[in-house]
Design goal:
Distance between the termini: 68 Å
CATH topology: CBS-domain
Strand order of the largest sheet: 1-8-7-6
Largest sheet: 4 strands, mixed
CATH superfamily: CBS-domain
Order of helices and strands: EEHEEHHHEEHHEEH
Number of helices: 7
Structural class: alpha/beta
Strand content: 15-25%
Shape: globular
Length: 184
C-alpha cells in the first residue's frame, strides 16, 4: 500500500529556485516602503519584558531575525536587538545595584533590564517612509547609530500604532552596500 502523502505521478524530481532572493533587491531609487517589514503583512515577533535575555536571543536565532518588539499586553514598550544581548548591556546591568540576584548572574537579566525603551527609540512615520526613497533611508541610517527603526502611524482611535520595522543590515543587503558607522 502506498502512503497517501507520496505523489508518484511526477517522474522528475522537483527543484528549488535558489536564484530568487528571499528579500527583494533594491536600488537607491526604489521606494523606501519596499525596505520595510510591514506588520500588516507579516506578524512581528514579540517578547515580554520579563523574558530572560538568552531566551529572547534564542527566539531571534530560530526566527532568523535580529530584533524583537517588547510588548506588555498590546502596548509596545521597547525594542531589543541581538546586539543589545550580545554586547555590553547585560554586563552593565549585572554591575548595577538594581540587579537583585545574590550574586547577580546572567540568568537574572531580563529583556526589560537592557532593552531600548519606547521613549528612547528612533521612529519614522509611515507617511515619511512611504514618501522616501531607499537612498533617503540610507542617508538616515548613515546619520544614526540605530540598527533598527520603528515605523509608526496614527491609530484610528488616537495614539500611535507600530506599522513596521526598518533594519540597517537588511537595507544594506537589499542594496548590496555597506554602511559606515555613524559618529553620533
Amino acid at each position: 500500500m502506498r502512503s497517501p502523502c507520496v505523489n508518484s505521478s511526477n517522474s522528475l524530481p522537483a527543484t528549488l529556485d535558489l536564484a530568487s532572493p528571499l528579500i527583494p533587491a533594491l536600488t537607491l531609487d526604489s521606494p523606501g516602503i519596499a525596505a520595510m517589514t510591514e506588520f500588516t503583512c507579516e506578524s512581528p515577533i514579540i517578547v515580554s519584558p520579563e523574558c530572560q535575555v538568552d531566551d529572547a536571543l534564542h527566539e531571534m536565532i530560530i526566527s532568523g531575525i535580529r530584533a524583537l518588539l517588547v510588548v506588555n499586553g498590546t502596548t509596545v514598550v521597547g525594542l531589543i536587538t541581538a546586539a543589545d544581548i550580545l554586547g555590553t548591556r547585560p554586563i552593565q546591568f549585572l554591575q548595577n545595584p538594581l540587579c537583585q540576584g545574590t550574586p547577580c548572574r546572567r540568568r537574572d537579566v531580563q529583556v526589560a533590564d537592557i532593552m531600548t525603551p519606547w521613549l528612547a527609540l528612533q521612529v519614522l512615520t509611515f507617511a515619511g517612509v512611504a514618501g522616501a526613497s531607499a537612498a533617503d533611508l540610507v542617508e538616515y541610517f548613515s546619520n544614526t547609530d540605530a540598527t533598527h527603526l520603528l515605523v509608526v502611524d496614527p491609530a484610528s482611535r488616537g495614539g500611535t500604532v507600530v506599522r513596521g520595522l526598518l533594519s540597517r543590515s537588511r537595507l544594506a543587503r537589499q542594496l548590496g552596500i555597506e554602511f559606515s558607522r555613524a559618529s553620533a
